[in-house]
Design a protein that fits this description.
Number of helices: 10
Distance between the termini: 92 Å
Number of domains: 2
Oligomer: single chain
CATH superfamily of the largest domain: SGNH hydrolase
Number of strands: 22
CATH topology of the largest domain: Rossmann fold
CATH architecture of the largest domain: 3-Layer(aba) Sandwich
Shape: globular
Structural class: alpha/beta
Largest sheet: 11 strands, mixed
């Protein structure tokens, strides 16, 4: 009997040992997968988990790199910088087990984040049926991060996996991202990868990492001092850091070229304070990606009939305009492609193209491109008239041939009056008989404003105010 129990005991031990041994395997994060696009001209991290101490070998093309899993099981190598390649190749990882990723390309990788206007799909955009039928772009790849929350940074998140663009799947892609990629790919002739990490109805704070809040003194009292609380708070769609923890941090350190951002509707009441929050987000993402020059391109919100205070939206516009003071940023203006009763304008083609113009001109150094509409530069008061100078103003004109609209002048008493405006020698002359000595000017200062001022390329001017403060 004793011998039988001894035999059974060893059988259990051997079975357990064999099971544990069999379960040892090399694991990769979900962001690494077949059909992915690796960032060209940059060292690309490849990482994962295995048994502590296990030697892991990563092979791609003519490169082979090795690493040893640490005590926590994590390992990482960096592929040396590569030129763009449209030829799908296998990436092999050998550790306790072997993982093979197929059809891996090298090109440009962009993160697409924000709320519903970024999440808005191709299938719900203008000319959807035709666009989907023509979506045969195997060099454009997309991966979707699902909606999820965490009060602590996560190491991985389940995704849809990387998908080459075909009519079967393109309808589910972020429309802004897809049209951005299509224009970019057509001009650069390299593969483009899109990481869709977005969630409708969300505020900016949940997307911001702690280091971002810490970088902006104006947010210290309201956010930085409470970061510990956020880490213990009940999961919430409005709680700072909770989407960053679950939907951005798991992507690190996947190498990206830059970020596209379309958000702000849910922060509309913040007004000019939104600028500080944008700065926190941008600083934060640049820090966690260890890239102080990470391009950050965003969409200025479209006019919409929100109701309530009609001046709240223009204040957000000004905050977004002010954000362009940060280096390596860009902004697509959308005041001319709106649907005033639909918070989701379906024309995402032009939005994506306008973001791509910023990228092509400033990120990729393409010369001779007009990439922005007129942006306020300076104001001169002379003989009772306001003389307004703009950047990006070559060929400045009225979009529809009618008199320029939505200009106002500010009196010394602090009251704004509608004013007429016209083009003279590349500048805009603004005046009204109601004010003899104006002290300020603004354009499009109403949530329903669709100013008709454009430059020669037809790109619209951003709303602005020359007076920022109590007299907004």
């Amino acid at each position: 009997m004793t011998q039988r129990l001894f035999s059974i005991g060893w059988t259990v031990v051997l079975f357990t040992f064999t099971t544990i041994f069999a379960q040892a395997e090399t694991k990769l994060p979900s962001i690494l997968g077949s059909h992915m696009v690796l960032q060209r001209d940059a060292a690309c991290p490849i990482w994962g988990w295995d048994d502590a101490g296990t030697k892991v070998t990563v092979s791609f093309g003519d490169q082979t790199h090795t690493a040893k899993a640490g005590k926590d099981g994590r390992w990482q190598v960096k592929l040396t910088a590569m030129k763009a390649s449209a030829k799908g190749r296998a990436l092999t990882v050998k550790g306790s087990s072997t993982v093979k990723l197929d059809d891996v390309l090298v090109g440009e990788v962009w993160l697409c984040s924000g709320q519903s206007n970024m999440e808005w799909s191709v299938s719900r955009s203008t000319n959807a049926k035709e666009e989907i039928a023509n979506a045969k772009h195997p060099l454009i790849r997309h991966i979707k991060v699902p909606h999820t929350l965490a009060n602590q940074p996560q190491s991985d998140v389940k995704t849809s996996g990387w998908q080459p663009t075909t009519p079967k799947v393109a309808g589910n892609f972020t429309a802004v991202g897809y049209y951005f990629a299509r224009h970019l790919q057509g001009k650069l002739n390299v593969p483009v990868g899109l990481i869709g990490s977005n969630w409708g109805g969300t505020r900016i704070e949940p997307w911001t990492p702690p280091v971002g809040f810490k970088s902006v003194p104006a947010l210290k009292a309201s956010h930085t001092d409470k970061l510990g609380e956020f880490g213990k708070a009940k999961l919430g769609r409005t709680t700072p850091t909770h989407m960053y923890n679950a939907m951005i941090h798991p992507l690190l350190p996947y190498k990206i070229k830059g970020a596209l951002w379309y958000q702000g509707e849910s922060n509309r009441a913040d007004g000019l304070k939104y600028q500080a929050k944008m700065r926190a987000l941008i600083n934060g993402w640049r820090t966690v990606w260890d890239d102080p020059k990470l391009p950050f391109l965003f969409v200025q919100l479209a006019p919409y009939r929100y109701g309530g205070d009609a001046k709240l939206l223009p204040a957000i516009w000004q905050a977004q305009l002010n954000t362009l003071r940060m280096p390596h940023t860009g902004m697509a203006v959308t005041t001319d492609i709106t649907t005033l009763r639909n918070i989701h304008p379906p024309n995402k083609q032009d939005v994506g193209k306008r973001l791509a113009l910023w990228a092509l001109a400033n990120t990729y150094g393409k010369k001779g491109l007009v990439y922005s509409g007129p942006l306020f530069k300076s104001l001169t008061i002379k003989d009772g008239r306001a003389i307004v100078d703009f950047n990006h103003a070559d060929g400045i004109k009225s979009r529809d041939g009618k008199p320029l609209t939505h200009f106002e002048l500010l009196s010394a008493e602090g009251k704004w009056f509608p004013a007429g405006a016209y083009v003279h020698e590349g500048k805009i002359i603004v005046s009204t008989k109601a004010i003899r000595k104006p002290i300020g000017v603004r354009l499009g200062w109403d949530q329903l404003a669709e100013p008709n001022l454009v430059n020669g390329a037809g790109l619209p001017a951003s709303p602005f105010t020359s007076k920022v403060g109590k007299k907004l």
